[in-house]
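Workshop exercise sheet. Pairs work together: one partner reads the sequence aloud, the other fills in the structure field after running the prediction. Swap roles for the next sheet.
Pair: D.N. / O.F.
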Amino acid sequence: MNLPLKFTTDGLIPAIVQDASTGRVLMMAWMNATSLQSTLDTGLMHYWSRSRQKFWLKGETSGHTQKVVKFHADCDMDTLLFEVEQTGGACHTGHQSCFFQEIDRNGNFLEVTETRLFDPAETYAAKH
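Structure field:
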């Protein structure tokens, strides 16, 4: 890959992921050069987990994969945008998107009205 991407000093670049059919933002995650190359090689989203310090394939535990449809870099080459075909929910909480919690202008959480697509306790319990 010969793109002049600007990774952070710790070798990461933010990746925004949106549903290719609806345009809804599903999640934001970090990628390193290896996860980006694996994504491009396989057509499935791979990331770097800062909390676990681990490379991971989206859906490796849940089966909720993300197939790349389009790939973009922003004008500064420091943020990536992927349009994907999402299988199942994107969020580990069971929601379609990680951005399910609406907040009002006063900084108060509003009631979550979105129904979960899956039960995270069932999806992840048997895998650990």
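Discussion prompt: DSSP finds two helices and six strands in the chain. What would you look at next?
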